[in-house]
Specification:
alpha/beta; about 200 residues; 11 strands
């Protein structure tokens, strides 16, 4: 009980302390990085962090490429929010409890835009189940238009400020499969999320 009271006392003091906000530093966009071929840079960086990038001409090619992958061929449960590419066999509408997605082998989702500088894709799931499927599946595929490419994170956050809900809506930047090397400097994939990431760049 004493520990809880001490913790609450500390939190109350922190909450009662007002800190004046400082303005963001000005960014000289004329000096920010630019790439002659942003798609090539995006592909280079995402590949370097463990993901794979495929440029496709239509949604039909997405399904074709996925069916070539052994992990996809042996998958039991596949959830998709991009029905034009993959129908999937897991009914997300009935997944009221995000824990019910624990057995997902694949999640196929759409991305809003991507960042050449760091190989990240911005995804904004619409509900709790869609949020969970981004992180809980063994394998993740993201479909995003290569025309929706920004150079760097300054552009990314500027773009987020111009959409409904802005930066206050839920979203996450995804780049590469989940990985950690905290334990004995031994790299482990899939420790906190997907083991593999496939990104399909559509026109």
């Amino acid at each position: 009980m004493a520990t809880k009271q001490s913790r609450q006392t500390i939190m109350d003091r922190l909450n009662g302390r007002t800190i004046a906000a400082k303005p963001h530093p000005a960014v000289d966009h004329a000096r920010t990085v630019s790439y002659p071929d942003p798609v090539a840079k995006f592909t280079e960086i995402l590949t370097w962090v463990g993901g794979r990038v495929q440029q496709v001409d239509d949604m039909g090619e997405v399904s074709h490429h996925l069916h070539q992958l052994p992990h996809y061929q042996s998958a039991k449960w596949i959830a998709s929010t991009v029905s034009a590419a993959v129908q999937g066999n897991f009914n997300l509408a009935q997944a009221e409890d995000p824990h019910s997605l624990a057995e997902l082998d694949w999640s196929i989702i759409g991305g809003e835009f991507c960042v050449a500088e760091n190989g990240a894709i911005w995804v904004a799931p619409q509900d709790v189940s869609q949020r969970a499927m981004v992180f809980i599946a063994q394998h993740l595929a993201i479909i995003v238009s290569r025309s929706q490419m920004v150079m760097h994170m300054h552009d990314a956050y500027r773009r987020l400020g111009g959409v409904p809900g802005g930066p206050d809506r839920f979203g996450v930047f995804v780049s590469g499969p989940s990985k950690t090397a905290d334990i004995e400097q031994s790299l482990v994939l899939g420790a906190h999320g997907c083991r593999t990431l496939e990104v399909f760049l559509t026109p």
